[in-house]
Amino acid sequence: MKAIIFGGTTGMGRAIARRLAERGDSVFLMGLDTDDLVRSAADLTERHPQRAEVGYAVCDLEKPDGFSAALDAADAFLGEFDAVIVTAAMYATQDALEADVDLVRRLVTVNYANTVVFCEHVRKRLLARGGGHLVVFSSVAGDRGRKPVAIYGSSKAGLSIYLEALDHKFNAAGLAVTCVKPGFVKTGMTAGLKPPPFAGEPDQVARDVVDAMDRRKPLVYTPGIWALVMLVIRSLPRFVMRKIGF
Amino acid sequence: MAVSVSDTRTDVPASSSSSPSATLSAWGRIPEKGREVLSEDLERSTLGATLCRGLGRSYGDSSLPANAADRVVATRLANRIVSFDEQTGHLVGEAGVSLAELNRLFLPRQWFTPVTPGTKFVTLGGMVASDVHGKNHHREGCFGAHVQKLRVRLADESVIECSPEEHADLFYGMIGGMGLLGHILRVEFRMHRVPSRWIRAETERVRDLDEFLAGLGRTAPQWPMTMGWIDCLTSGSSMGRGILTAGRWATAEEAPALPPPDPKERTFPIELPNWALNPVTASLFNTAYYWRHMAHRWSGLMTPDAFFYPLDAILHWNRAYGPRGFTQYQCVLPRAAGAAAVREFMFLLTKLGGASPLCVIKDCGPQGQGVLSFPLEGTSIAVDMAVSPDLQRIVDNLNAFVIETGGRIYLTKDRFTRAEHFRAMEPRLAQFVALRDKWDPKRRFRSAQSVRLFGDAA
Ligand SMILES: Cc1cc2nc3c(=O)[nH]c(=O)nc-3n(C[C@H](O)[C@H](O)[C@H](O)COP(=O)(O)OP(=O)(O)OC[C@H]3O[C@@H](n4cnc5c(N)ncnc54)[C@H](O)[C@@H]3O)c2cc1C
Ligand SMILES: NC(=O)c1ccc[n+]([C@@H]2O[C@H](COP(=O)([O-])OP(=O)(O)OC[C@H]3O[C@@H](n4cnc5c(N)ncnc54)[C@H](OP(=O)(O)O)[C@@H]3O)[C@@H](O)[C@H]2O)c1
Asked: What's the domain range around A139?
């Protein structure tokens, strides 16, 4: 596999990048900060069975003008990538968002609009080369309108629908699309929050996601128990959702 | 008892992350109020922080906040390998790299850490801050003896590198310094080449304490790794019976062609009630463990996991001690005090009722250069003890005895020692305080333990 991991310097993206590098896949990182990318690339090289060099390019989801150049760099390094994994995204608490409309605009733009734009660039390139794999991190927060994640969740809901439709439309043309819906996972993103029951670890998610890629699954809940949790939450009646805090 | 099996190949379970009620605890499961900051970026997250903690495998309160409002940084996400030299074994890693991960990555390539404690769920930062020792202490000293350089955040927020050549006073203070001189950001040390991925071990059932101490003395010159498990619940003539273990890496010829299977870890599923581990169940356990070792002597091949980390096979086994939690009392008695002191210690322990299934004894080599490093030439004894109303009295009495023999306790395990006892057993304290005066005059770095033992402000 020749894979780009956008967001692969931290959290679940880091865990996935390691898993791929350790089994010998070619890896290319995208992220916000050059120094950070250099250090993550070096870590992955030490883990690669052939100590293969790992490429990287700066790419900012707030700057869609840079998407093409970053993907060009990946193509040049990998010799045409065939898989792209996007874990990069913004998170803010509902309280912080309600207090700051500019933060709302940024978060919704990064997590939905610009992520879709990035995916469109990738889709075109992959289809032009006969197919490939696009894996994008959405969230269980997009499964139901809930009080603590009203805005963040809605950005992920839009993303989930887009990914579902991509799968419907382009699967036959050879484009595999995987929408990943993590439940609560203990990463830097959730560091300030209370872990609920069934909180997962990044390595566990990486295992599930790489496994889903190998089986070309269109949708993964991870840790798996969250499929059940969300089934229950989706079926709760409105009067209950109005009462409860989550 | 039902235990659930899970493949935890790369998962390093934290001993405890911020629980809902915002408390932190270490391996002994006695909580303190506070929260931890979790981030990949230690250079940023340690700004303004009073303490770092790794995987919380210390038993006591050295990784717990002095004050609930303190900024305590958990390093476990800062876990990148910065570089590894396949020729020399020179490794540079971020402070949160775990030993479990190093073993997983480098043992297949026949490189191993020069020193390992009895659990692999520790971080490089924690291994330096506690200056951990292993079964090979009599040969290799502590982990700190193999460290070449540290990258450290100082009290004034600057970041510097220290080594035996550069800021040597800080370097030797950091080794075994329990995080009280600065935050370790990166660790550089030399891994060792091993001839195979298997351990050649010999275990021997030993009838009493004298035989035990003689056995330790006999095996140490011959074997690079030794330790013993003592049944400290028996008294009379069989006091000190136990199992003596010695080992070395198997040669390429001795080792099977196949690599050791991946360890399957099990999770201790529930917290047992406080009364579950009592003198009766503990001594049943010990008798069973002792007699399970049927032959007088056994020798053969073992996996490194079985040899170094028998307790890691059951994740969260600390739940067995019940909701009140537990501690480990570990001290070292100097060789000069002789076998008599060890025997007296065991008598005292039995008399005080420090009933415990786990009692580990080990021959230590000479003291290292870490200013507050634990080991000194002599015999180290470690005993687990459940929290009970008697515990403080037991610890006080044992400490009084240890002071008399010229020994000392291991800070990373400690939660109950009194400041005056600590001062009495630690002639190196003034040297360490002078280092704090120089590098952290305002006492920014502090922990629940430093409040108790050093009198830092909470
Ligand atoms: C089952 C078991 C067996 C053990 N066997 C042994 C043994 O054989 N030999 C032995 O020596 N020890 C042993 N230990 C103890 C253990 O090795 C030490 O307590 C070790 O320090 C724990 O590492 P940690 O990463 O979990 O650190 P923590 O427990 O999180 O922290 C320990 C100390 O290190 C400091 N620290 C951690 N990271 C940093 C950093 N980045 N910068 C500055 N300070 C830092 C903390 O402030 C604290 O004072 C054992 C523990 C267990 C649970
Ligand atoms: N953790 C959870 O419980 C959870 C639950 C459901 C869904 N998710 C989703 O899972 C994915 C991975 O999250 P994680 O938990 O692994 O957290 P994470 O480590 O914080 O990963 C998020 C990454 O996105 C990057 N990023 C932020 N803004 C960016 C921008 N404008 N351009 C480019 N990159 C940007 C971050 O970079 P910096 O670190 O440099 O800012 C970080 O590397 C995210 O899509 C998240 O929404 C997480």
From this structure: 2-243
